[in-house]
Amino acid sequence: MHYQKNTTKIDEATLTSLGGASGLASPLVRRVITLYRQEAEKMVHGIEKAMSGGDVATAFRAAHSLKSSSASIGAHTLSEVAKQIEALLKQGQLQQAQPWLVVLRTEYTQLMDELVFFEQKISAIE
Q1: In total, how many domains does the chain have?
Q2: What is the CATH classification number for the domain harbouring 36?
Q3: pLDDT digits (tens, 9 = 90+) for 7-31
């Protein structure tokens, strides 16, 4: 099990680019963060629940979705963790994917904390 641990959980440039000419001040950025936070929680919980129940197919789909949505907002570390889980599940290696759940939850929690910071930063701009 190996992954690149970054101290910054989100790429601000990616979030800024989502806002177009308005950058972080764009209402779209706030909306994207809100939707991502709601959906990411469901996906992380879905991965955990499916893996604990031995449902590889459901866990695989949730990991794939989390990987893609995380990458799209610049949450590259969480995306990479989801990618590792996805790859192991694709090979049917549920037991080998289990240790990644701790990493997934840790990275997810840290990302959520960082997104709160970004929401506060956006509020200060508006």
Answers
A1: 1
A2: 1.20.120.160
A3: 778 898 998 898 888 888 888 998 9
Both structure tokens of 97: 């994917």
* Tens-place pLDDT, residues 85-107: 999 999 999 999 999 999 999 99
Which of helix, strand or coil describes residue 64?
A: helix
Tokens encoding 100: 């990644």
Residues 6+ apart with CB under 8 A from 116: none
pTM: 0.89
* Domain membership of residue 71 as a residue range: 12-117
- Whether the CA torsion 52, 55, 56, 61 is positive or negative: it is negative
Q: Hey, what are 81's tokens? A: 């963790």
